[in-house]
Amino acid sequence: MQQATILIPDISGYTSFMTKTELSHSTHIVNELLQVIADSVQSKFTLAEIEGDALLTYANGRVSEEEIEAICADAFKNFHYFLKVIERDSVCRCGACNNASDLSLKFIVHYGMFEEIKIAQFTKLSGPDMIIAHRLMKNSVPSKEYILVTDAYQFSGEDSLLSWESTEDHYDLIGRVSYQYASISHLKNEVLDPESAEDYSSVFGLARVMDIEIEASLQEVHATLTDNNEKVNFVDGLIDLKMDSSINRIGSTHICEFDGDTFDIKTLQDVGENDQIVYIEKARSLNSGMTLLTYYELKKTENGTNLSFRALTGDRQPIPAEFSDMIYGQAMHNLERMKSYIEKQQVA
């Protein structure tokens, strides 16, 4: 048996987030947030288990009060900074990507004994104190952003900058568990805003313009255009598609392979709301090195959506005349295919 400080960072709002949003994107976002938390506490605590919305971590012996507060505060602020990054970089307008900022973080701290149980390559922590720590994830604290420290840890709070309150909860088969808790909601005021992304939308004034009308809502057209998984349904000649992330965000990249050429495509911008959205990508040919900036402006119309396409060279100049018809013709060919695909989906 070993004595250890047990720390459980637990995502608040997880159940509602997972049950009321798109599963693939909500799962991806939660996994990213759990990684942020793990990175924030790993200097002192060892990760033992991942439990859906929480991490079970421990450190041998008693971690000091100052370290506990500092580690929890850093993890909390890193968590909320990452949520701001998601908000800044989101392209997808699904429920998960739009509502990630509703998530938050709380911490359970306990001190006690545990034993390691090893099965194959896995190690599980066991013992009454592990059960107590787990049960405390359900408690009567009137907040979703706090640090909870059990009396077993013998927390004094003498030098703490937080405001602590004492209470207890009763659990079946365990009995009363006394603890102190402090709100950390105010720490969100210390979270800096991420640097703004570059605005490319104003550089396409000299670009040639081609339009297409699609009989579908702006939201449906935008979702199909920006979901890289959908490209196999309308991009002609696409052989293979590799993505750096299952969610398309500003800065995301994907590789499109064709017979004779491969393109490295990066998402640069997605701005706008209900009636008008501008989406911009940068595409670089791995064969020739030629780079294009492509601009898609979606506007809500009476019968659906107007999509306006423009393109510039990588140095933000109009496409040379000898290449313009080929590039625009190829782009409009694929947009016609996208139109057909979306409108068939409407009928289905």
Give unreliable regions as ranges.
Answer: none
CATH architectural designation of the largest domain:
2-Layer Sandwich
Q: What is the CA-based Rg, rounded?
A: 26 Å
SSE order, one letter for each helix or strand: EHHEEHHEEHEEEEHEEEEEEH
Largest sheet: 8 strands, mixed
Distance between the termini: 62 Å
Helix content: 25-40%
How much beta, percentage-wise? Answer: 35-45%
CATH class assignment of the largest domain: Alpha Beta
CATH topology value of the largest domain: Alpha-Beta Plaits
What do these coordinates show?
With 348 residues, the chain is an alpha+beta fold. It folds into two domains: 189 residues, Nucleotide cyclase, GGDEF domain (Alpha-Beta Plaits, 2-Layer Sandwich), CATH 3.30.70; 147 residues, 2-Layer Sandwich (Alpha-D-Glucose-1,6-Bisphosphate, Chain A, domain 4). Helix content is 28%, strand content 35%. It is built from seven helices and 15 strands. Strands 1, 2, 3, 4, 5, 6, 7 and 8 form an eight-stranded mixed beta sheet that branches. A hairpin with a 2-residue loop joins strand 11 and strand 12. The longest helix is centred in the last third of the chain and has 27 residues.
List the helices and strands and how they pair.
Blueprint: E1 2-12, H1 14-19, H2 23-41, E2 46-50, E3 55-60, H3 65-89, H4 95-99, E4 104-119, E5 122-126, H5 128-135, E6 146-150, E7 164-171, E8 175-183, E9 210-214, H6 218-226, E10 240-243, E11 253-258, E12 261-272, E13 276-285, E14 291-301, E15 304-313, H7 321-347
